[in-house]
Amino acid sequence: MTSQIPQPAGWPFIGNVLDIVTSFSCESFHRLAQQHGEIYQLNLLGRKLILVSSHALVDELSDDKRFKKAVGGALMEARDLLHDGLFTAFNHEANWAVAHRLLSPSFRTSAVQQTFDGMREICADLVGKWMQNDDRAPIDLTIDFTRLALDTIAYCTMSYRMNSFATDEPPRFSEAMSAFLRECNGRANRPYLLNILMRGRNAAYCSNIEYMRGVAKAIIAERQCGVRKGQQDLLHALINGRDPKTKGGLSDSEIADNVLTFLLAGHETTSATMSFAIYYLIKYPDVLRKLQAEIYAVVGDQSIEYEDLARLHYLTAVLRETLRLQPPAFVRVVYSVEDTTVAGGKYAIAAGSGIALLIRETQRDPAVWGTDANEFCPERMMNGRFERLPPNAWQPFGYGARGCIGKNFSWQEMKLVLCTLVQQFDLALADPAYELELSQAMTIKPKNLSIRALPKRRKWC
Ligand code: HEM
């Protein structure tokens, strides 16, 4: 005998739409999980969505024989731009497997290592900007990290210089991408007819798509014209690679889909994680002091080298703990392959049902993380404790075949950048009373986070 999955009372036709602030669903999902427990369901304009927030259920649902990635809601809308690119492809689409096979070698540790110097070059742009900030004006951290992450992904995977630090304006590409993703979110949560009527929004949506596809085409055209032709990077693999299985390659339009996929997936999450990490380091001065001591011992006042990365254990723990409390991809959605039950047979789930795994909630489950689950404590990620965690307790990079392909890349970038900034600057909040607020498009990042970065007078004091 199964039990009914709890559901907040809704309204005729629209169901539970009013229970969700669509521009900030992360907070709504959190509130509803507090009210209804580890599993609840919503009726969103006739579309049923089940949401789970305990580690036990996420662990059970992390089984890609029973539950597969669902491309629905905002992700489905994002296909207007990205089509069947790696991130938005349906599981059955042949191009996912082709692109996955073509691109996986570019993300092996040894291949990512080749991008270290390029990452250092872009990081130098950021350091230069902060050094020249003579009047010590507040720095909008998320915008600078967006510049950095966008330039890094474009330069280190496509040898293309975005030069986002050359202007005071936020990078146009990431502005267009954020507006596009916000609108994908909005469209997914509005009735179809209402979407058709919103002419102004639709025009902006289309013009953002056109602009971004233009950027992708320019990047590809530059390479096809022979600029940096021999460069063995991800763009080379996209343009020239032949799938070992089908012997086929990708068409120009499919190459553009994946260029845009990487520009999107490669910058939003990484820049958000670095912003959250700096926030926690400033808020927890003891953690910052320990990290400074480690960096002093491993790197000294020299430029960080690739070999140093593996020796920065405390920095690894700081990043793991940041990604536990604030996973930028705070939710992932799967569907049930067949009729099944979960929670030891307690709840029935019909084949095809969409289930949202609220990773930000799971990664704070007291059953795994204890009563201080909401505290920032890198020590819980060290000295074998991370390795002893139950399966799927820490899952900021997704799961299985559709998990993050760029994990090694982002890990290298984040360690290089955070090490360099902690080494070279004294960091403080511009407003010492600031408490973390979130903003959300497809992912979450800190809202209104401004800092001051003072170059260290002596590098180590
Ligand atoms: C801290 C940084 C990052 C985090 C937290 C992160 C997180 C994730 C998550 C959770 C997924 C799975 C999404 C789902 O199930 O729907 C994913 C997929 C993906 N990520 Fe990342 N990511 C990060 C950095 C990157 C970088 C730097 C790149 C590119 C260089 C990248 C490229 C991708 C791609 C292409 C996919 C789709 C993979 C597929 O479906 O085959 N990510 N990422």
Automatic annotation (TrEMBL):
One of its GO terms (molecular function) is iron ion binding. Heme binds at residue 404. Its cofactor is FMN; FAD; heme. Keywords: FAD, Flavoprotein, FMN, Heme, Iron, Metal-binding, Monooxygenase, NADP, Oxidoreductase, Transport. InterPro entries: Cyt_P450 (IPR001128), Cyt_P450_CS (IPR017972), Cyt_P450_E_grp-I (IPR002401), Cyt_P450_sf (IPR036396), Cytochrome_P450_monoxygenase (IPR050121). Pathway: Secondary metabolite biosynthesis. The keyword Iron applies. The keyword NADP applies. In the N-terminal section; belongs to the cytochrome P450 family. Belongs to the cytochrome P450 family. This is Cytochrome P450. It comes from Schizophyllum amplum. The lineage of its organism: Eukaryota, Fungi, Dikarya, Basidiomycota, Agaricomycotina.
